[in-house]
Amino acid sequence: MKILIRDLVDGYVDNDEEGVFGYGGRLNIRPKYQREFIYGIKERNAVIASIQKGFPLNTMYWIKNGNNFELLDGQQRTVSICRYVRNVFSVIDRSGAPKLFSSLPEDKKKEMLNYPLNVYFCEGPESEILDWFAIINIAGLKLTDQERRNAVYTGSWLTDAKRHFSKTNCAAYGLASKYVNGRLNRQEYLETAIAWIVDDTCTIEDYMAKNKHADNASELWQYFQDVIHWVQTRFSVYRDVMKGAPWGRLYNRFKGASFEPAELEERIKELMMNKEVNNKRGIYEYVLTGEERHLNIRTFDETDRWTVYERQNGICAICEKHFTFEQMQGDHIKSWRDGGKTELENCQMLCRLCNQKKGAR
Q: Which residue, 251, 88, 222, 221, is CA-closest to 161?
């Protein structure tokens, strides 16, 4: 069916959490299973340019709900169109000047408002509608894993969770933007929070299924606040490398342990200045776990390893058997933990087995 843009934008309102509607108030543009608006300037402008040039847009899918409709696929294009006609943004025209819809010549306005959109109407039970949603979104700007989960586990819990973790300038962003990576509108903050709270106890899907009909997401929100508060009180000096560390996993493991913040900071500062440490973010895991693998200690380069291999005549320094160069590894004679440096004089060549055994001690 053809729907004109003038009919689509009739009664358009965007009340954020309260909903986005158009088509005379009969079209719910952002149902609960839909993701947030994620188009950037380039994508939204491309939609408008296509319309102004008369190029066809891909089919949009609406769900029939009595006399009303829900938008199943095409939200990004629909919101771009409605916002442009409502003068929310301008588009550069052929002369290079930014033009709002209201500044277009009358004939161009009329052409755009009379542009026909291809709309397919879907009918069926909720499970079938969600299957449509997943299939349709295989192409185009692909859904993230969490966006797919949101489509399956929509309900009162998810609505409240998105209020905390998905909206622009939401509470989670204000609290933790210095510590957490991710894009709010692609549900990555929400995914991180759930992954933290479940840890190894269950899957994200299990947690969402269990809580689908809960009145709110207060448990998750309180947990998230507890994690960030724990980080802030244990690590008194903020550094950029703290962003993106696995804080939830560390909190789950060490929240009951006693650490003196001043002592932690002293050790962190020392490690930050140590040239042997390649992974500075890993320092925070190391000072809690003592696991050296988080530091990515510098290794001997190929030239040094070949020099020592020739010096040892291909003989492992521990088992005293001969190996090819590819079968051997460079090892610190004096370990990094004991102050050893990654220098030629501190290198010995060991076979893989001997090096593994030494590292395990």
A: 221
